[in-house]
């Protein structure tokens, strides 16, 4: 248990620091370049998140459910639906987000900040659960690959929050702060997931697929619509292939 906590804390601290590193791009990228690069960043993040949902979350969830009382596909399918419904409900519960400004870009960026922060919750849980599974030494490479993959996609997410804020006139320091804050929830929920895993091992297929559903919701609802250009699609495919390669090669 103690080993799992330390591993989860270390893994989620890395993903958080990658978010902060991405947000720090605001100190080196000008407002004009930020606009041109945002779609590629969001597309890349969407590709990594999609691949992570499949190889790092859904496939392990199905594998752990095999041999149980329920069909192995059922926890994965239900977990996806529950995870997506959870984020959709949270999104609907924040109506002020869409009305706080007459500026459509400001409303959109506020929603993106909320969405990325919300989906960082199941990301942190996914890393924590992966290290909880690997606490005995087995599957540690796979857990490290998941943390690396999520950390990689956290970099463009941090930048995707800070750069648009800078473009709208926020100071570099304030834009960096908002981008960094979006990743704080990952260490908190990553450690909390270790306690949940220790108390409820039978729920792990459901928790893993729940995290996958939440991540897929963000990709479909928030990232894909804003990265539908050729550059965004190319970045999506690059992110997908990178995460798939990391997970298969290191897992």
Description:
By secondary structure, this protein is mainly α. Helix content is 82%, strand content 0%. The protein is built from 10 helices and no strands. The relative contact order is 0.25. The mean pLDDT is 80.
List the helices and strands and how they pair.
Layout lengths: L1 H22 L7 H35 L7 H20 L3 H4 L4 H30 L6 H28 L4 H10 L3 H15 L4 H20 L6 H21 L1
Helix pairs in contact: 1-5, 1-6, 1-7, 1-8, 2-3, 2-6, 2-9, 2-10, 3-9, 5-6, 5-8, 5-9, 6-7, 6-10
Helical coverage, percent range: over 70%
The parts where pLDDT drops under 50 for at least 5 residues are none
What is the general shape? globular
Overall SS class? mainly alpha
Total of domains = 1
Which range does the strand content fall in? under 5%
Separation of the first and last Cα atoms? 22 Å
Sheet of most strands: none
DSSP E strands, number: 0
Would you list the SSEs in sequence order as H and E? HHHHHHHHHH
